[in-house]
Amino acid sequence: MSGTKISIDTPAGKVEGMCDEKFAGVVDAFVENFTTRDEVGANVAITIEGETVVDVWGGKKARDGDAWAEDTVSIVFSCTKGATALCAHMLVDQGKLDLNAKVADYWPEYACNGKEETTVAMMLDHSAGVPHVRPKVKDGGYNDYEYMVGLVEKEEAFWVPGTRNGYHGVTFAWTVGELVHRASGKRLGKFFADEVAGPLGFDFWIGTPEAIEPRVADMIPTLPDADAPMTRFTEAVMTDPTSPAHLFLLNGGGFNFNSREAHAAEIGSANGITNGRGLAAMYAPLANGGSLNGVTLVGAETLSRMGRVSMATHDDATLLVPSRFALGFMKSMDNRACGVPDASAIMSDAAFGHVGMGGSIGFADPSNGMSFGYNMNRMGVGILLNDRGQSLIDAAYRSLGYNSNASGCWTV
Fold first, then answer.
1. Residue 213 near residue 288 (C-beta atoms within 8 A)
2. With contact defined as beta carbons under 8 Å apart, do 97 and 51 qualify?
């Protein structure tokens, strides 16, 4: 990477790295996050046509802890779904998985309790009808892959598969993850390591080795603002124990995302460990035709399909806000007018990627050859992005000459 070396003191600690002068606004926004938005530790990285133009990190691994180092990583929660979806699309590209086939063709045990007609595509676009499981998840259940696969395959569909969508916030790990396992013969974490992270040479694990643990920044939870307006999602969580929203947030078997057990598990919806650099590196080939540096992930037809909206709704059955999904990826979502704070993630119309709980994000923008990644350790409230991550995306698009996101997507 060429560019200007960055070394800036902030109230939370030093910001360091490199930045192409064209993207200086991204660094300004990153520093502003530490100055006025209570950022604790973070990394943002951007590539253009496979070349890194921004890679800056800073702050601390904990409020009173060590400095956030260049190689610090953290759990990125649902950004992991992008990695899992990528693995599924690679198998489609290889002819080992058919989006239009029934799930039962690969996973016969799944075909029960109203799920018999579910297709592979429905698993990816959150319309499969298994946004969570109803039985109480045992203590530590998320960390037990076979146990969770068993719960998911026995679950009764919440709706007729394919007729609507509702965010499969955690179950995506086992609906899509087990399809990757069945189609490839490898568990998801190994497939991703062997076929994606390893060949491309970046840090990203779904099932993190113990040797990496000293580099992992613990996540700092946040509590909702007592003065925040009551949303339909919050109301469902608090008052309707049968709702997908309640089950998604509160039926988790006491999942401790800062524990070694959680980091070591294979949860393809929620426990990937990486940083902004790793997220940008994963999406870089997808921003540039499906290949980079001699490594081909998918061909042109598969890549085109990956970025198209597959399922959209005015009322997501889990999140209870409008949502737009490609096959396993989020598209630009603008919910600024619906009265729900931090429920948007605004990119260009061509972009696709995934937000992670608390505010991390990674995405590809093929129209600009751009990939973007941001991770942090202080979690924000809200369903999608908060102002820290969105401000970085906004600065990136302004650096590219875009001038407005009033339409719900960034436009020139």
1. no
2. no
In terms of DSSP H, where are the helices of 20-130?
24-36, 79-93, 120-124
Query: Which uninterrupted H or E stretch holds 191?
Result: helix 188-192
Beta bridge partners of 36: none
Instruction: Answer yes or no: are the C-beta atoms of 217 and 377 closer than 8 Å.
Output: yes
Q: Which two tokens stand for residue 397?
A: 């698009």
User: What per-residue confidence (pLDDT) applies to 201?
Assistant: 98
CB neighbour class for 268 (10 Å; exposed up to 12, middle 13-18, buried from 19): buried
Per-residue tokens: 223 = 């509590």
Low-confidence ranges of the chain (pLDDT < 50): none
Q: CA–CA separation, 140 vs 149, rounded Å?
A: 14
Alpha helix (H) residue ranges in 50-156: 79-93, 120-124, 145-154
Contact indicator for 285, 200 with CB cutoff of 8 Å: yes
| Rounded (10°) CA dihedral 256, 268, 248, 92 | 180
Nearest alpha carbon to residue 193 among 282, 77, 290: 282
Dihedral, 340, 311, 104, 301 alpha carbons, nearest 10: -130
| Residue 308 DSSP one-character state | S
Give the start-to-end residue ranges of the domains of the chain.
72-380
Q: What is the rounded CA–CA span in Å between residue 20 and residue 66?
A: 27
Tell me the H-state helices in 56-171: 79-93, 120-124, 145-154
**In whole angstroms, what is the distance from residue 238 CA to residue 77 CA?**
22
Burial of 335 (0-12, 13-18, 19+ CB in 10 A): buried
3-state secondary structure of 229: coil
Q: What gap in Å lies between CA 157 and CA 180, rounded to an integer?
A: 21
**Residues 293-331 pLDDT 10s:** 999 999 999 999 999 999 999 999 999 999 999 999 999
pLDDT digits (tens, 9 = 90+) for 209-263: 999 999 999 999 998 777 777 899 999 999 999 999 999 999 999 999 999 999 9
Tens digit of each residue's pLDDT (9 = 90 or more) over 179-195: 999 999 999 999 999 99
Q: Which CATH superfamily is domain 72-380 in?
A: DD-peptidase/beta-lactamase superfamily (3.40.710.10)
Return the SS3 of 391.
helix
* DSSP-H helix ranges across 193-338: 198-200, 232-239, 244-250, 260-264, 276-283, 300-306
